[in-house]
Amino acid sequence: MTVKPILLMLRTDSSGDIEVRAADPDAPQVSVLDFGVTRGDGVFESIGVVGGRPQALEPHLERLAKSAAMLDLPEPPLDVWRSAVLQSIELAGPDAADEELLVKLIYTRGIEGGDDTATGWVHLFSSGPYDHEREGGISVVTLDRGYRSDVATTSPWLLQGAKTLSYAVNKAALREAGRRGADDVIFISTDGIVLEGPNSTVIALIDGVYVTTPSSLGVLEGTTQAAFFADAEGRGAATEYRSITVDELRSASALWLASSGRQIAPVVSLDGEAVAQDPAFTSAAVGRLLAR
Ligand code: PLP
């Protein structure tokens, strides 16, 4: 049974109040003059919903607000967004608890020539299945992102580390991976530091420590990686945020890509070289992430 998609449109009226209205997800809802459409000028979040519960709701809302601030968008009223997310799950009915879903939050600069109010919507739909990637793993290629690892400090207007709607580059990188016979990508900075995937966070097991790249290097703060680290720490494992060189990536004991829908997928090959696997660990970790 597939859950029917749910769409809630958020519209700010002239007094600044926000109206949340259920809308038909199969009908056009957004203006052709919306800056989100014409310029990709906006931000978004994708939140996993498992067992009818949104995962890492508060970290996602905080990240939405942080991305919006980086784009100088009006501060999103998080209480309205939070209740819209919960309402969308409620509207999906009892079947929502039996499937893995994603709820997307989209927040744009609004309509060109309009009243300077942002456009927003919440869209809930069935996601997955992810078994193939979680169990079989993914082949990954490294690609140059073309920025230094200090880009967030030197050039904040490049919006590295904001989750903007402009994902054309991320999608182009994934197509390049496909042309190279791979499933996914790990971006590398021009100075040889591991960054992130086009829609995932890198987790590397190096000398027995789970390591990921700090967000200060212009990568998105991953909510799934944070949940993985919390789980690992709770089980007595060591974790660390630090820069990772490409050589360290190539010699890591194990690698995963983490993201809200897929949770974690083990990397089975990197630039054509086999990466060591621990399927029992990955499967148990996926189970714990789904149950959180
Ligand atoms: N990095 C980028 C660029 C992403 O687009 C995503 C996923 O949205 C992530 C990392 C992983 O973040 P999360 O685990 O919160 O989904």
What is the N-to-C succession of helices and strands?
Answer: EEHEEHHEEHEHHEEEHEHEEEH
Helical element count? 9
Shape type = globular
Oligomer: single chain
Query: Which molecules are bound besides the chains?
Result: pyridoxal-5'-phosphate
Walk me through the structure.
With 292 residues, this protein is of the alpha+beta class. The chain contains nine helices and 14 strands. The chain has helices at residues 35-38, 57-70, 78-92, 131-136, 151-154, 168-179, 223-234, 246-250, 279-291, and strands at 6-12, 18-23, 42-50, 53-54, 101-108, 119-126, 138-144, 184-188, 201-206, 209-212, 238-241, 254-259, 263-270, 273-274. The strands form two sheets. Strands 7, 8, 9, 10, 11, 12, 13 and 14 form an eight-stranded mixed beta sheet that branches. A six-stranded antiparallel beta sheet has the order 2-1-6-5-3-4. The radius of gyration is 19 Å and the shape is globular. The relative contact order is 0.15. Residues 46, 196, 199-201, 220, 222-225, 258-260 line the site of pyridoxal-5'-phosphate (PLP). Residues 46, 196, 199-201, 220, 222-225, 258-260 line the site of pyridoxal-5'-phosphate.
